[in-house]
Design brief:
mainly alpha, Tetracycline Repressor, domain 2
Length: 217
């Protein structure tokens, strides 16, 4: 994707129509599920619209009713990937508050297991995610989710320590998000062993960063 898109190109990447009925939503899900499976199977090769349609059990015309091209499908997959993180973080807020550092460490480990799976299962989408980050026209897509993720990290920290100021919690949440994402991208570009080691390093950095603010024994 180009670093700066003109209006025509930007429009061309948007879904042609938003599903308003349950049947339409199911068709879109079939398209996205098929595209996701193919991207995992084909690695660095981008699946064609025809291949996506065949895997979804649809005609190419049916796919084009919702997406103008394969790039728009990948962009929608990236949106789906980004939208999965808030739900994972909310799970940690909705459990009983940890009362000591060992309990909090276990909660962090659970979060890392869940979020690591999101990265490992969607490794072929990372070039799309990086393209979004580096493109002025597409960056708002990621910014929207980033703000939500930072707010949820802050809410999680305040769940652990209700006395923690919101400004401080959001600053910590920003660091948690940015460091976690950047380091995982590095790990994904290496190999699974390196990814796992980097995960352990990021977890240690997170704990060192936030423990002084959590008032846990």
């Amino acid at each position: 994707m180009k670093r700066s898109l003109d209006r025509k190109t930007k429009i061309a990447l948007e879904p042609r129509k938003q599903p308003r009925q349950q049947r339409s939503s199911k068709v879109v899900d079939r398209i996205l599920d098929a595209a996701q499976i193919l991207t995992r199977e084909q690695g660095t090769r981008t699946p064609t619209t025809l291949a996506i349609a065949q895997r979804a059990g649809l005609s190419v015309g049916s796919v084009y009713q919702y997406f103008p091209n394969k790039e728009a499908i990948l962009l929608e997959l990236a949106r789906r990937w980004l939208s999965s993180f808030p739900e994972v973080i909310r799970k940690r807020i909705n459990v009983p508050r940890p009362t000591n550092r060992d309990e909090f460490r276990r909660e962090v480990r659970k979060l890392f297991i869940d979020t690591s799976r999101l990265y490992l299962d969607n490794v072929t989408l990372m070039p799309v995610i990086e393209a979004i980050s580096g493109n002025a026209d597409l960056r708002p897509i990621q910014d929207e989710y980033d703000k939500e993720i930072i707010a949820l990290y802050a809410a999680w920290l305040q769940h652990v320590n209700p006395a923690l100021e919101e400004k401080t919690a959001k600053r910590l949440g920003l660091v948690m998000m940015e460091v976690g994402h950047a380091c995982r991208l590095v790990g994904l570009k290496r190999d699974r062993k390196t990814f796992d080691l980097i995960e352990d390093d990021v977890e240690a950095m997170w704990l060192a960063l936030v423990n002084p603010y959590l008032n846990l024994d």
